[in-house]
Amino acid sequence: MSVGHHEDFSRGVHGGGASDRNFGWVFTAAFLFFGLWPRVHGRPIRPALLAVSALVLILTLLRPSLLHPANAVWTRIGQLLGKVMNPVITALLFFLVFTPPAMILRWRKKDLLGLTREPDAESYWITREPAAEGNSMANQF
Asked: Above 60 in pLDDT, residue 19?
């Protein structure tokens, strides 16, 4: 485990990706979509992408094991992308979603959780009154 990080980057990645047949179906659909998409805008279709779609479809139906090397590369790219993007997205979420409200609350001297230390307090326990009849969690249903 490296110093300065709370994560263990040495552990392996779970899962081995999609099956070769599922990989073939997805890429058949993707090449078909991108081959036909220009037609939506009145442009000619892309025959090269349609040919690749047909080839991948044939391999998917007859010998999906031939798609295994491409599937392995695609899975590895996804894993690497996940290792890079997860910390980036988490940092963006933290700094763009959680930090601004926290800074505003500090600027306004709000303590929503009641975490400020009170040296003169006898106890930090919050006294609660018993629940009214029927409002108890003891008999929820």
From this structure: yes
